[in-house]
Design brief:
- The protein has 284 residues and is of the alpha+beta class.
- The chain folds into two domains: 166 residues, Ribosomal Protein S5, domain 2; 52 residues, no CATH class.
- It has eight helices and seven strands, in the order H-E-E-E-E-H-E-H-H-H-E-E-H-H-H.
- Strands 1, 2, 3, 4, 5, 6 and 7 form a seven-stranded mixed β-sheet that branches.
- It is globular.
- Keywords: ATP-binding, Kinase, Nucleotide-binding, Transferase.
Length: 284
């Protein structure tokens, strides 16, 4: 990892110090991944729609080294109300399962599905992405973990495969039915570009952002959420119900005219959810 800005450099410095304090020696490998904010396309990724996120200069760095054993050890600096360290055996020795602490499930999922043979390692994760703030701290942890594992055990050639593996880790180890947006932008985002993602075709295109003297202002509402326990899963089921009533595979294939024609068959809240998604897909 070669830091490209002061935020990344500070993260790497803090992570290196944390690692030395935790394990008593210098880390050899670092992996980094950014958080994100979405400009257009809310609740459209899991409806096969389009999204336009940008990567942030906030992110997560995982640093560490192989430890010559079959045990993986990782610590976090996150402000969580649970154990900040986790230890588990490599997947080739013992099947990995979700458990406590919950934050480590994102790491374990990536280790379980990594495209390569994972051996024992010592690591720490340090992040400046606010937890539960809607800036994809979980995807940032997943992708930085994957990048760290690549540094130890070999690269995955396909960026798309890397993103899909991280999404699978969140689905199966964090029990969160997330779309692909967060992992795609965390893997593929570049400075001064947005990323237009077709969530049905799983293709993406970098869109240059020439905003000159304008800024994208992100504010902290101080409201925390968790995709695994929030209304997110409810929204997804509501959208799936709307698509079923409209007779389409997903709301990507529905039109406003179809929706209005079937309004009497749709509960009011389902109608509103579908109207939002269909209009967002059209807007993007």
């Amino acid at each position: 990892m070669n830091p490209i800005n002061r935020e990344q450099e500070a993260l790497l410095t803090n992570a290196t110090k944390f690692f030395k304090e935790s394990y008593g020696y210098e880390p050899k490998v670092a992996g980094y991944a950014p958080g994100r904010v979405n400009l257009i396309g809310e609740h459209t990724d899991y409806n096969d729609g389009f999204v336009l996120p940008i990567a942030l200069n906030l992110g997560t760095v995982v640093v560490g080294s192989g430890n010559g054993s079959d045990v993986c050890r990782i610590k976090s600096n996150a402000s969580v109300d649970e154990d900040k360290s986790s230890e588990f055996r490599v997947p080739s020795v013992e099947k990995l399962l979700p458990g406590e602490p919950k934050w480590a499930n994102y790491v374990k999922g990536v280790v379980a599905f990594f495209n390569g043979t994972v051996k024992g390692f010592d690591a720490v994760a340090v992040s400046n992405v606010p937890l539960g703030g809607g800036l994809s701290s979980s995807a940032s942890l997943e992708v930085s973990t994957y990048a760290f594992l690549e540094g130890l055990f070999g690269k995955t050639d396909s960026l798309k495969e890397k993103a899909l593996i991280c999404q699978k880790a969140e689905h199966e180890f964090a029990n969160t039915p997330c779309g692909i947006m967060d992992q795609f932008i965390s893997v593929m985002g570049e400075a001064n570009n947005a990323l237009l993602i077709d969530c049905m075709e799983l293709t993406s295109e970098l869109i240059p952002m020439h905003i000159d003297d304008c800024v994208i202002l992100i504010t902290n509402t101080n409201m925390k959420h968790n995709l695994g326990t929030s209304e997110y899963a409810v929204r997804r089921k509501q959208c799936e119900e709307a698509a079923k009533i409209l007779g389409v595979r997903s709301l990507r294939f529905a039109t406003t005219e179809q929706l209005i024609a079937q309004k009497e068959r749709l509960p009011e809240v389902i109608f509103r959810r579908a109207r939002h998604v269909i209009s967002e897909i059209g807007r993007t």
